[in-house]
Design a protein that fits this description.
Shape: globular
Largest sheet: none
Oligomer: single chain
Low-confidence stretches: 188-196
Structural class: mainly alpha
Length: 196
């Protein structure tokens, strides 16, 4: 089996295991190999280790979730609220898988292509309805995603700086609401806009 096909098979296996409610930290190379019906050594060959494989699978899950939100047909919900819901759902995934997403953040911020902001561009364009240029929308998308990514990645330092513990679910909701209000010029929604 070619390396790319094996990589895809291993990623699909991990995504399936995670979809079954599996704890990423409880996954073992042996267990993943057995579920994929391959030798655990293939994980090292294809990814350099189990953590890199799990990180790749989680990154793909987050990208797929973002794509579902992005491609969902309008249902009458205002674009800003769809954006708010999308960012909240993605942030929950990032926090849930933090030990693995944290390993990929430095690369994504410093070396990777700028991809994640593209997921929210259609919603920003729709929200502004031509009142912002394409360049302004792209800068806003990048600023929103970069702020959220870096803040979650450096949650301890962010708490010392801003006094907000992003590990706390309600604090994350409040911060996301504030961020969208500040960046997009919306009406302040208060601390409980995103409901349970």
């Amino acid at each position: 089996m070619q390396k790319q096909a094996m990589r895809a098979r291993l990623i699909d296996t991990v995504k399936h295991l995670l979809s079954q409610g599996g704890d990423p930290e409880a996954l073992t190379s042996r267990g993943i190999g057995a579920a994929a019906d391959v030798s655990p050594a293939m994980i090292n060959y294809c990814f350099g280790g189990k953590d890199a494989l799990i990180s790749a699978a989680i990154e793909e899950q987050i990208a797929e979730a973002a794509e579902r939100f992005r491609s969902a047909p309008p249902d009458g919900t205002p674009p800003l609220e769809r954006l708010r819901t999308m960012l909240w759902a993605l942030s929950e995934q990032v926090v849930r898988y933090q030990p693995y997403t944290k390993a990929t953040v430095p690369y994504a911020l410093l070396h990777g292509e700028i991809v994640a902001p593209r997921y929210i561009l259609p919603l920003l364009r729709a929200h502004f309805g031509g009142r912002k240029t394409e360049t302004e929308c792209r800068i806003l998308a990048h600023a929103l995603i970069s702020f959220l990514t870096l803040s979650y990645f450096r949650a301890d330092a962010f708490e010392r700086y801003a006094g907000i513990d992003l590990r706390d679910r309600q604090a994350r909701k409040n911060t996301l609401n504030l961020l969208l209000d500040l960046f997009l010029g919306g009406e302040p929604h208060g601390s409980d806009h995103l409901s349970e």
